[in-house]
Amino acid sequence: MTESVTRGPIKGAVENLTNNVINAEGLTKVFGEFRAVDAISFSVGAGEVFGFLGANGAGKTTAIKMLTGLLAPSSGNASVAGFDVYTGAEDIKRNIGYMSQRFSLYDDLTPLENIRFFGGIYGLRRKEIKEKGRALIDTLGLASVADVRLKALPLGWKQKLAFSVAVMHEPRIVFLDEPTGGVDPLTRRRFWEMIYESAERGLTVFVTTHYMDEAEYCDRVSIMVDGRIAALDTPLELQRQFGVGSMEELFIRLARAGKGGRHEE
Amino acid sequence: MGTAISLDGVEKSFGAVPALRNIALRVDEGELFGLIGADGAGKTTLIRILCTLLVADDGKAEVLGLDPVKEYRSIRSRIGYMPGTFSLYEDLSVEENLRFFATVFNTTVEENYELIRDIYSQLEPFRTRRAGKLSGGMKQKLALCCALVHRPDLLLLDEPTTGVDAVSRREFWEMLQRLKKQGITIVVSTPYMDEASLCDRVAFLQEGTLLAVDTPEGVTGLFTAPLFAVRAREKYRLLRELRGFEHALSAYAFGSSVHYADRRRSASAGEIRDHLEKRGLQDIVVEPVRPGIEDTFMALMKQGRGEGDD
Amino acid sequence: MKNRKGTASSFRGFVKKEFLHIFRDRRSAAILFGMPIIQLLLFGYAIRNEINEVKIAVSDLSHDSLTRAIKSKLLSSGTFVLAGEPESPAAIAPLFAEGEIDEAIIFEPGFGVRLERDRRAEIQVITDGSDPNVSRIITGYTTAAVLDYLRQSSFPPEGKRGVVAEPLMMFNPSLKSVYLFVPGLMAMILMLVSALMTSISITREKESGTMEVLLVSSLKPVQIILGKVVPYFILSFVNVVSIVAIASVVFGVPCRGSYLLLLMESLLFIMTALSLGIFISTMTNSQQVAMMISLGGLLLPTILLSGFIFPVESMPLPLQVISNIIPARWYLEIVRAIMLKGAGISILWQETLVLVVMTGVLVAASVRKFKERLQ
After folding, report:
1. Among the four residues A116, B239, B310, C222, which has the most C-beta atoms within 10 Å?
2. Chain C residues touching B151 at Cβ < 8 A
3. Which of B73, B77, B83 sits opposite C212 (nearest CB)?
4. Any stretches that span the bilayer, and where are they (chain C) (predicted)?
5. What pLDDT, in 10s, does the model give residues B187-239?
6. Which alpha helices (H) appear in A52-184, and where do they start and end?
7. C72-104 residue pLDDT tens
8. Residue B56 near residue B10, CB atoms below 8 Å
9. Which CATH architecture best describes the domain C54-171?
10. pTM value?
11. Inter-chain residue contact B137 with A196, CB threshold 8 Å
């Protein structure tokens, strides 16, 4: 990774406000009696690849919804891309990219139509969409299938396209929710190389995954257990701290130690 | 030991799209057999043929010594099947789901409780909870209980661990190991390479073709090039520099390091380090490493596709 | 698989599960039980076609005892309110224009005398045609009242009188619209519950993947289908009984024929609708498509083409032909005949036979199409 990556302190990283794309302080969401997210604090620097891990039901999805302006927090503060999650939800949405395994592109449209549609959604001008669309199709090597409906394309191609579309409007940060589920290992790695490349250009990447080896590809990793952040550091440092040999081992140890509120979500 | 499944030259297409090509394999009784492959590799089609939901276009198939076309009824009553989506009734409670599947198979939960006790005990506290409100891991366990409730001879599981967190996945595999001890033959498909090592034997599927069928150790034996785990400070640059090396066969990120395979039998760690140092990388560590399942799978995939170097 | 008892108990388990689905899902429970009642009350109270307090002007150019008698007969029914007695027909138009009256009646000069002598006399009935439906009803009502009076006072008018008496009025003399809506409503609700709900509940299992497991179980396709059908059969029957009960208790709709026949015919129609629902679910794997087909392909024709709202006889010929393949059309005729005319099976055997044949064809087609495997 680039040397400029901010390795901020774990809690309340305020000194790097200018460089941080995400700042969360005591961010909390309560559903009835259930504290889905319980006062989490962390920051993510510009150009960082930040892994956001946690068992099913640990509160990951809720946290991401708050950070992307889809869900108002119950308490605590957070800013994303320089905007407050309470007051600037709309600005946040304009300045982030989002891609998930479940929803990304329209299967019944062609790659080009998808690019045009999402370009329009993100408020790009027609000329920009045209230029970017052509550039995207070229760099992804989709020229031969630019007019084929998406559902006929291999999953790996779709995922690459989905990622490119999610960052087409040049957001400061992109949220990737389990982007590589079900893909073969070769395609998965090619996808991660796209992530690296984007991060090198300064894009902040916030990614969740169930593949623990992918956790090691991140600059820093946080592991959520029962709504709290149980660990946060570089993968190597975390393994040293906890005296484990792999991220998988660490993850399982932390998640099993949790009281296992793993039945929601 | 008898044969639970034998396939020979099995073919299946959907319209013009081939889903399975010339599949030949054997699964022994009491074996834990893994079908490893990505989405669209043909895993689901193969499992559906085995559980008689689909009929192969061509080739010979035998399941539990029976013909899946003519004797499908007999097969159906002796297998347990868990489709890719956890097929539970989300509006019914945990207990109601289990009881329903028991009655469907003309049995009762009590009759075969021994078999599922281990798994069901973890669900017991949530007995009255609706299945739709369970976490992925819990749904997966319940679906497994439902597939086991009539004590099948053969268990066919289609991607039971997809979308489930690492803890639940590990627990699930522990359960499968215990079921195997009870003498049940298990065929399980998965996109996760690391799960392959937990099977007795695995079949690698890629675009409808079998790349290899062997024990996990046997499979890794197919990887013959010298392999090194390389670390340096800037991983993405490291990847590019390794790929740029003239003797490179392949270089892929693997956890915290990069796995680099060399074309030459005689490649040495020192040589690679020298190259990287010359290119200005820092904190370089190069050590030889034994190829794993994933290394092998990727190498076989590239061979299968006839792709050159990356 | 183990024994007969086993098969029976697995079937019972299936039916029980189906009931759990219905009662767990508030929406389907609401459709099943709320719909019939709400619809009935809606049609019974809100959407009334009948007329009240019709403002009427009577221009009596004859001034004899007969015209006075007819006039007082009309006014005594309470339906008509006298709003003016213009001396000349010319004064009528302004009254209409100002909205003072809804109807005007003109007795020709020498009405009583001509009726005595020629057995023929003329009344002109003028209505505000801006709402043709209401006008038609008012006209019909007036005509009926006049004819009724003449018949009672031994002036049987011979032959054609230039007024068309609708045969319907023979059996529904006060033109109570609720009488007409009840049979239509029964058809609609049975179609909705039986066809829509079964097709959705089967396709839902296909979508969730549970159908795969059921197919791989030792259940036979027939058991799966029956397990799906039985609960809705029972619920539909409960609905029929409650509609007939509400109609009779709340609205006083009579059933002149045999209740037993009515119930048997309803059971037959439920079977038709259920087999339609199963047939739809064999055509598609998605709940959404099943719903679209059920609503667009079944419910709308049931409402529009069955004679529920628009009489079949007044439809253009192509639609009349199409209406023949709509089961509700035949059911509607049967129910109306039983409830309003008191008809028996000797009269209704043809309509009944049509429904029997339709059901048979649909069941045969569904069984052929129901797949024990995936495609």
Report:
1. B239
2. none
3. B83
4. 29-47, 178-202, 229-253, 259-282, 289-310, 347-367
5. 999 988 889 999 999 999 998 999 999 999 999 999 999 999 999 988 888 99
6. 60-67, 89-95, 111-121, 126-139, 155-166
7. 888 887 778 888 888 887 888 888 888 888 888
8. yes
9. 3-Layer(aba) Sandwich (3.40)
10. 0.77
11. no
